[in-house]
Task: inverse folding
């Protein structure tokens, strides 16, 4: 468990019923804390359902910037009778639970070690709002006012946010302002400082420039900046909002001012197989094309991923991972597609994978993905996850380098083809494993046949043993080239004997755990892998440590397995720390696992 | 004989098109299909159609799935890029290719195996999207390349070479196409070039998805007594409902048609398809009537051929999407890049 709450360090959790408008109220609360200057994170725990089931929103505030799930609840707003018991049980000792006291609570639902506060939210709303819909919506805004009072949040900040939000819908503004005041005033009148901590304004580097964004929006925006023009997709939780993000920003930035026509083409495919087929067709024909899906979609796309690998066509696939296997838990997070992404499809295949840790990396890695896909002429999978994709993260301001030019890879032009007698598709003159390609319609000399069946370096169909092997061996040369191009791991080293290896959204929890362990005298270096294939830096880190903890969010230690397959990794010195129940990992989980392992080591 | 390269000689008397090219310039490699295969005749008709339309030989993109018919793109339009995709998955690749560059002429070659079972979903949705391409179902009632299993177009009671009878109802690509909103539906026979070539030209120039079901007998696995897709059976049971002539924009319609007999359909570039009813009862612009006609004739054991349905007024995929006239693949990055100021502006709402 992370440390007890204090000023600007606490976790609020709101339990609600989905489909009742709680999301905007929760966002208001989160944003107001953010505007104080405090590092915050907002995590959604929503059901795989449209309306009527339990949903939770968890806000962690951490002045030091520890933004992994804390694993504790200091303030619980219990708005859902269905989950009241478990919400009550989940409050940390010394914490506070707020409930709607319009209706009486059952006597049995008591706890001596927390403070339970009743606020007549429904009664207040019924008295102040005429319509049924307003009463449901405003109830949530009232509790925001209550929490603001308890934490002593400056009301002007909230009022300012409301003014901005409802600038174009003034009729709603008054209602929201009233709701905030109702909650705030009731709390101030009836409760004298039940909380031993508050949320106050701070100044820090990044305040005023940092943004709040989710990973899917960042990936969509990044794809616009990368110059992607064709997007083919099929809806699946939790990746749909990535496409929505791409579309939203295209509508604003990709309309020709004179003709009003779109400089992008989005096709909603009939299924994931078709989506990947469209991506490959578009890339083959010279457009930057991508799709977004989750684990089940990658399974469906695997045939085409192998096709793209062997016929050497670029593609970008955003895999926003969720809990598997099979349909799994569509609204819970996991990192369990590492192996199936790295080796997607039958036969000898290996795919370039990128592993962003947060929305900031989602944005920049979009351009990396397209550059790599076209340079290497191969599918590239960006492995995000639900925690990154659909939660509200704080990130430094995103910046675009105006000098960026997309790497389109080696594509022969009409002029070049005019000088040539003959063109052969799979001839690698430079020795880097990549053979120049041509685009349809450019010039007759450039014509060639693309096929997933055995082919030779001239692009002709073959069943010849030597010719076939020559091509697949060249793909390994290309793989070695990829090692020099993919994002390097992030390494923090103090020459400790213990090393943490981790990936993606584990990052915040690992860094917080590392600090906690260091304070207790246990030093550990940390490497965060950011891409597959692994480059020499990854092997060097493995070699430089006596004990390695490989921390990931899946049951079968897939990152460790991938390292064992591709690198030299001594089993006896590596220990897996695996978190895979669908919730984002906490620092406490890592600390406990490390301590347990060290104790075992001492006992032995 | 397919190991021999075709000699690059040109008879001086060969007719040339508007580009000064002969049909030889639209050919591909030597076929490796069985001697007498219907697909080779379709290939030949395609070469003729492409040549007569005077489209530059590299202005096409030819795509296919997996199967005997899917091998044929290697045998025509050698100067165009070709792509042999996964089984049943050519429509999606063609859709994506078209999305990237709307200016090329897309030829999709498939078979009854590739399109009516594994590929049925993609076949249906490419038609619904009205992707601007021509789509050939080279239909022989069997899976040729895997040696003779029934396909979904095999008629009830028709027998395989070993004698097993198919008892599942057939899928008729034309009736399916009508139901799915296709804007150009035709059927022909590999052996009838006179009918087929104008249909291919019309399909290529049609602004939208041009579906042509071409009965193409498999001499090795389905040309025996008991097959309903053999040369003999086809010739006996064909029923021409309508004859289509393709007239390029520059040519005036010279043929004389008796009153009420000819129905010209104008295409977007000014060329015309002139439809001559062979059967007075047939109206290729009335979808419901066409569907009923096909169904009724099928019940009598007849295979209706010709340009069965055409609707030139429907928007194709890019029209519906509001796509720029400049192909996606050709828009410069400077135009696509929103710039760092826009990024600042977007983020101003995220604080």
Result:
């Amino acid at each position: 468990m992370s440390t007890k709450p204090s000023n600007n360090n606490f976790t609020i959790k709101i339990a609600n019923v989905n489909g009742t408008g709680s999301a905007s109220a929760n966002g208001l609360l989160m944003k107001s804390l953010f505007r104080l200057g405090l590092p915050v994170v907002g995590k959604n725990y929503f059901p795989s359902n449209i309306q009527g089931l339990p949903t939770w929103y968890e806000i962690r505030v951490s002045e030091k910037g520890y933004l992994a799930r804390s694993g504790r609840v200091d303030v619980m707003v219990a708005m859902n009778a269905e989950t009241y018991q478990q919400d009550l049980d989940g409050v940390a000792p010394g914490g506070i639970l707020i409930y709607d006291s319009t209706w009486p609570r059952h006597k049995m639902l008591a706890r001596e070690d927390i403070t339970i506060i009743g606020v007549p939210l429904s009664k207040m709303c019924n008295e102040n709002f005429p319509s049924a819909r307003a009463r449901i919506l405003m109830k949530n805004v009232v509790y925001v006012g209550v929490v603001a009072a308890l934490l002593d949040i400056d009301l002007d900040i909230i009022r300012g946010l409301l003014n901005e939000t409802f600038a174009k819908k003034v009729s709603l503004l008054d209602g929201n302002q009233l709701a905030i005041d109702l909650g705030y005033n009731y709390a101030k009148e009836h409760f004298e400082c039940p909380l031993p901590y508050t949320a106050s304004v701070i100044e820090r580097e990044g305040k005023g420039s940092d943004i709040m964004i989710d990973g899917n929006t960042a990936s969509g925006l990044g794809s616009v900046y990368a110059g992607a023009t064709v997007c083919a997709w099929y809806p699946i939780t939790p990746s749909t909002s990535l496409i929505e993000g791409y579309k939203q920003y295209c509508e604003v930035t990709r309309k020709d001012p004179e003709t009003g026509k779109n400089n992008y083409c989005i096709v909603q495919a009939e299924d994931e197989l078709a989506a990947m087929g469209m991506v490959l067709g578009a890339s083959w024909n010279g457009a930057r094309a991508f799709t977004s899906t989750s684990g089940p979609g990658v399974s469906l796309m695997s045939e085409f991923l192998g096709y793209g690998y062997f016929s050497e066509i670029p593609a970008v696939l955003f895999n926003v991972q969720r809990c598997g296997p099979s349909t799994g838990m569509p609204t819970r997070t996991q990192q369990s597609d590492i192996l199936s992404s790295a080796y997607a499809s039958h036969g000898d295949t290996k795919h370039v994978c990128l592993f962003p840790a947060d929305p900031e990396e989602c944005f920049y890695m979009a351009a990396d993905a397209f550059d790599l896909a076209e340079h290497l002429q191969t599918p590239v999978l960006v492995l995000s996850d639900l925690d990154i994709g659909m939660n509200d993260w704080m990130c430094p301001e995103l910046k675009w380098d105006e000098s960026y030019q997309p790497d389109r890879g080696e594509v022969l032009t009409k002029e070049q083809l005019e000088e040539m007698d003959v063109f052969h598709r799979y001839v690698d003159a430079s020795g880097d494993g990549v053979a120049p390609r041509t685009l349809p319609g450019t010039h007759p000399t450039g014509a060639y046949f693309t096929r997933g069946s055995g082919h030779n370096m001239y692009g002709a169909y073959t069943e010849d043993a030597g010719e076939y092997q020559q091509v697949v061996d060249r793909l390994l040369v290309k793989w070695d080239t990829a090692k020099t191009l993919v994002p390097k791991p992030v390494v923090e080293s103090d020459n400790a004997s213990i090393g943490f290896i981790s990936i993606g959204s584990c990052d915040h929890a690992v860094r917080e755990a590392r600090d906690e362990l260091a304070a207790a005298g246990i030093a550990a270096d940390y490497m965060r892998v950011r891409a597959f294939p692994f480059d020499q830096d990854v092997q060097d880190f493995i070699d430089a440590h006596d004990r390695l903890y490989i921390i990931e969010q899946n049951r079968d230690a897939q990152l460790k397995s991938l390292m064992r397959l591709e690198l030299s990794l001594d089993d006896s010195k590596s220990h897996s720390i695996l978190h895979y129940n669908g919730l984002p990992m906490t620092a406490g989980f890592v600390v406990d696992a490390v301590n347990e392992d060290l104790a075992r080591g001492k006992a032995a | 004989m397919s190991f021999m390269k075709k000699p690059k000689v040109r008879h001086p008397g060969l007719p040339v098109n508007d580009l000064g090219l002969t049909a030889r310039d639209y050919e591909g490699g030597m076929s490796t299909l069985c001697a007498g295969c219907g697909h080779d005749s379709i290939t030949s008709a395609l070469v003729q159609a492409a040549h007569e339309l005077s489209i530059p030989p590299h202005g096409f993109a030819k795509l296919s799935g997996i199967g005997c018919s899917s091998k044929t793109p290697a045998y025509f339009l050698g100067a165009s890029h070709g792509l042999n995709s996964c089984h049943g998955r050519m429509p999606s690749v063609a859709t994506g290719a078209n999305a990237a560059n709307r200016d090329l002429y897309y030829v999709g070659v498939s078979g009854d195996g590739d399109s009516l079972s594994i590929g049925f979903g993609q076949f249906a949705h490419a038609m619904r999207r009205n992707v601007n391409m021509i789509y050939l179902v080279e239909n022989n009632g069997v899976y040729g390349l895997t040696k003779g299993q029934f396909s979904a177009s095999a008629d009830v009671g028709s027998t395989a070479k070993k004698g097993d009878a198919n008892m599942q109802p057939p899928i008729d690509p034309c009736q399916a196409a009508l139901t799915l909103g296709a804007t150009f539906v035709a059927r022909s026979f590999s052996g009838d070039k006179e009918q087929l070539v104008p249909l291919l030209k019309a399909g290529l120039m049609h602004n939208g998805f041009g579906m042509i079901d071409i009965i193409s007998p498999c001499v090795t696995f389905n040309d025996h007594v008991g097959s309903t897709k053999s040369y003999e059976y086809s010739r006996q049971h064909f029923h021409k409902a309508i004859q289509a002539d393709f007239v390029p924009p520059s040519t005036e319609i010279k043929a004389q048609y008796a009153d009420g007999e000819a129905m010209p359909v104008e295409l977007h570039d000014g060329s015309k398809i002139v439809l001559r009813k062979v059967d007075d009862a047939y109206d290729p612009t009335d979808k419901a009537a066409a569907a009923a006609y096909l169904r009724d004739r099928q019940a009598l054991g007849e295979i209706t051929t010709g340009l069965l349905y055409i609707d030139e007024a429907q928007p194709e995929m890019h029209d519906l999407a509001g796509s720029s006239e400049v192909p996606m693949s050709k828009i410069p990055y400077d135009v696509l890049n929103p710039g760092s100021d826009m990024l600042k502006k977007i983020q101003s709402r995220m604080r």
In short: The two ends of chain B are 72 Å apart (CA to CA). Chain B touches chain A through 62 residues (CB under 8 Å). The longest strand of chain B covers residues 303-310. The mean pLDDT of chain B is 89.
